[in-house]
């Protein structure tokens, strides 16, 4: 029975309101007033454009536009009017020059194409200046920095050089004190020039300032040897290396010790060096050490005293034992032992110099001259400026308004200086506050001589004409002295007068050995004010605070002068693997105590990782003497309890692109110019910071197929099959080595004819410095993707250096633990056991493993590509044809090594990725021999096929066989520690062939049966335990 | 009009002959006094021509009537020509003046020339400039030749139309006769029109449409595959540079200008200073005689204008024979454009393989306007790699690999493909 009840929606409907009636007929009560928005009715009626016409026009114009687009663009080719003799378009020229920006010093070769510098290589003729680090490799991009100062400025207005010169000459003759505040030039002719300058203008004086100085080491050296210099160390001669807070594989005393250290670390005839490290932060040196002892900076001082025979009381038991052990080993090694320290204290530095007096490793006769700054004079200058005593301040190569701990005072003092000139490459924090800016050229546009190590003069020469209206500091000085001589002439005549007979040869080689500029030790001390505890007379480790802070420089960022360099910003820190950031490193225990610890992801809480694996961190406030900064906290395994670490060089705000303004400026914490400080740390707020890490997994969890390692004792005494076995599989109840063709899925391919390239990676020699990563970027046009993309694991690095922590104290214990798993649950259960193994130990061992495409002979990527875009060559290289790739990413999924990178976006000429590939200046660094990849294709390491092909072609053209050592890749060229060796294994005499037959040789994930053309050498640790 | 023109040319011919006779006479006179102009011409071309012209200044001044210029002072001229520098150093006033007037350019010494030789040369320098050649005749001929073809065609068409009309008329007339005489003309039987029959035959329709579809697919495929293939691309260049004249008539070796093809991936567009190696002394094309370079389409004036463009670009002042320093680089339109992802190296092909440039670039020596000869597609590259043998003679690099590989493949000669020239990564990276 249906109901006949009446339903109504409103009262109006029930009572028959006419509006409701109308609405039931039409959608709208009134007609839509179309003519109001389409124009008046008259126009509408009179118009002849109907809807159909409109569509026709749209269709026509679309078709016309697409037809017009069919025509190829007209490309222009513009040859030289007069072609320079040495330039052949398409052929690279190399020039020797020297980088010396006051922080990094290295003799290098610059590859130029059509007059554009595009790549930095090591200069093998150099000794003291040999070994370009990641920053030196990246410096070629800083040449094309779009934020460089382009023309002279006076009070922010563009002026001519004459105006600048006149203003300065007037100020120089004004009678008031004039000060030259410069970087360490380490340049004999510049020193001479400055001496002439200060002689001509008696009111002028010269102060050297290093942003990250070695004040105490310099003072100690000066006290003992009468020269302001730094002892040099040749670690290749060392048998025992004891480092107390010295990150000598990083930037300690200018760095550059990788090559010597690498040599001593490769076991030869059963011997290798032993490295013991006492340190607070987990540094590169600590990561490479055989034994690492977490030690706070104040304990480090005691450690040095104990090593020198003092009392070890006051040190915890474990450190006491370690010190005693180190002492014993040093005594055994005799003259082949060496102690280095980074303790910021003149007395301690002095002790170390005494300890090493008989060491073969230390060289004080020909010291290093790469640091010479005097912080006392800088501190005095700031006082003088504020007292209004300075009439003219000229800065060169320094940025005190950014890097001084008392930058505010400096800026205030600057206001009282009548004329101030910044000879700076950028209108940086300092230059922007100065009255004049005299733009300086990049080192690739300048002339100079640099004495990195006494007796070795490295020459700097321009490799490109100045891009902007710049003039180098030395030319400025000559001009202001009233001389018309260019600095080049001055330098040339000075060098020739000093006995460098063939100046052109010296420039060609980039280095000349002469003692002409060696300073003899003066009979009495140069500076009578210097006493044993001179320093700055402050012990920054005393005072209030609950933590000891060690300020350090990152391998990527250094002192921050290249902060606007996207390669360096995106270069992962070797230890934390973080990009685009600096952060407070802290031990897990301390983080938990301060409430800065984030738990592993749970459903309800804010988690350490987000859903994509991106790492999060809390913020902490760090306070020294009333100066405080808020920084994100990263929990660092191995960080000594009670200590924190923070990287310098970040937090720049001036003359830097917005994307590159990352991190926090830590210089204000560097009170008294000391790297170690007593600080108080507390939780700042409840916010969560998002880090961008390249690597998400921290430990190996006992997977010995990835990193193999053993101890020197086992290596010397046991058979290879014990410590480096080839995995075996069973077929028909017979055990076969997995490399045997008997158990191979694929038919083997004959690669015995022609070249067959192999890359050898010695993990004992690899220090993890990352120079190869930047060299690869530069050679292969690898794009920079930015922080948010890195956090999404979309980084494009073709070569990564994986860092693995051990979850027990050593990798050996990891293996034992994993092998002892029985069953799922219980005490030895794998279920709980594996999750325990995910967390690194408090003081873990570390292994570095460079991973690039392994160029498998039986490549899993090749079999799954639906369009055959990736294929194998007879020469062993796995090819990738970008133009063929359709972007299915099957290959990346099937790659066991995860080395394939997908171009999620167009990274060049895209405003969303505003790095060097988005401006004409930055694009000049691109290598014209390598395709710039577009969106939607996979890319990966090509084993620098453009370089191997070039070597082959050169040999063909010259009609000769290829010698061993001619084949190279960008990474093997950049590696100064000898870890990466590239060559042709079909050449029986080649080094790589010998290395491939070494006992330590193994392939990554050998059991997969991919037969890679990249192989590794197992780590051998010189430890007594295990 | 035509008559007037002819008369005009007739007069010109007369004047020309008169001029020619006059030349002969002058040379006859010259012979009497000094030397043999014909022998002088040869000497002039081999010794003086690099820097001097008769009627135009080049590196050195114009030499026409040089004897008259120096008042017939043969003795002074001998000294000057044999060693001008010595004469200047001796302090001879006139020599110093001449030296300074000509921008202190040092003239080569010619001690090997005898006085008689110099007499001959000087005789040749007295040759007056010949009058410019006649052109109207050439024009007339060209026009006549062009029209004749059209006329013939037109006449043929007319004949054809007439024929049709005549046939039609004949047919009509015959029909009229037939009607008049009562002969019954058989009417053609009504048949189904052919198109209707075709439409009704389903099988035929099906076959035809399949054929049509296949045909159009074939052409569509061809059209699509030619997208981006710029074979025959011959853009207009900022300077009309004729490869025909340079590589063809003058037989200049390709790699003289494109020198980087030997050592670099780029063949290189020569920089303008390479052009000036020759064009410093060649300011105009040969307009007549055996070496004439002009064609019907491009006149001498046109070519000379193009050379002037070069001078402007490189900043060369032909009047003072010096560089002004104001340069204007030439923006050539690039003809051969390989995509960025394809790596090609000229030196590999030119120096190592010894391939002729013409193999890929076609008959450049005949090209008045340069165009892209080869399709430059990957198929084209690969085809050649499959067919071409590697040139191993005299190249120790190939010794070992060639021996091993030829043994493996069981062949005498390896192709580029067998050597690995088809691997993707050899060209794409």
From TrEMBL, chain A:
InterPro entries: 4Fe4S_Fe-S-bd, TAT_var_transloc_signal_dom. Residues 757-787, 844-875, 876-905 form the 4Fe-4S ferredoxin-type domain. Gene3D superfamilies: 3.30.70.20, 3.40.50.740, Formate dehydrogenase/DMSO reductase (3.30.2070.10). NCBIfam families: MoCo_extend_TAT. This is 4Fe-4S dicluster domain-containing protein. It comes from Dokdonia sinensis.
Automatic annotation (TrEMBL), chain B:
Residues 35-129 form the Cytochrome c domain. Coiled coil: none annotated. Residues 1-30 form the signal peptide. The chain crosses the membrane at residues 151-170, 203-221. Keywords: Heme, Iron, Membrane, Metal-binding, Signal, Transmembrane, Transmembrane helix. It comes from the Bacteria. InterPro entries: Cyt_c-like_dom, Cyt_c-like_dom_sf, Multihaem_cyt_sf. Pfam families: Cytochrom_C. GO terms for molecular function: electron transfer activity; heme binding; metal ion binding. SUPFAM superfamilies: Cytochrome c (SSF46626), Multiheme cytochromes (SSF48695). This is Cytochrome C.
